[in-house]
Specification:
alpha+beta, 84 residues, 3 helices
Length: 84
C-alpha cells in the first residue's frame, strides 16, 4: 500500500492533495507513517520501525495503524491499486 505520488506532506504534518485541493493535519506519528509509506516501506517495515522507536503494545499499534490507514483511504490519499 502506498501513498499517492502527488501527496505532499510537511515536516509539521500538513498533508496536501493537489488533485482535489484538500488539506489535512496529522500528528507526528501519522506524518512519520505517511513518510515511511512514501518511501515504499511495507507494513512489516513500518511496524518494526515504529515498534523499535516507541513504547507501545502490538495490539494498540495494529489497531491505531489500521484506523489511520482507513482514514487515508477515506480521503483518497492511498493508491488503491497497490497491494497491502
Amino acid at each position: 500500500m502506498k501513498i499517492n505520488k502527488n501527496i505532499a506532506i510537511s515536516d509539521s504534518g500538513f498533508v496536501f492533495n493537489p488533485v482535489n485541493g484538500e488539506s489535512f493535519s496529522v500528528n507526528p506519528i501519522g506524518a512519520e507513517i505517511i513518510s515511511l509509506m512514501k518511501t515504499g516501506q511495507a507494513y512489516d517495515e513500518i511496524e518494526q520501525s515504529l515498534m523499535n522507536k516507541y513504547s507501545v503494545e502490538i495490539t494498540t499499534f495494529e489497531r491505531d495503524y489500521f484506523d489511520f490507514i482507513g482514514l487515508l483511504k477515506q480521503h483518497n490519499l492511498i493508491d488503491t491499486n497497490e497491494e497491502a
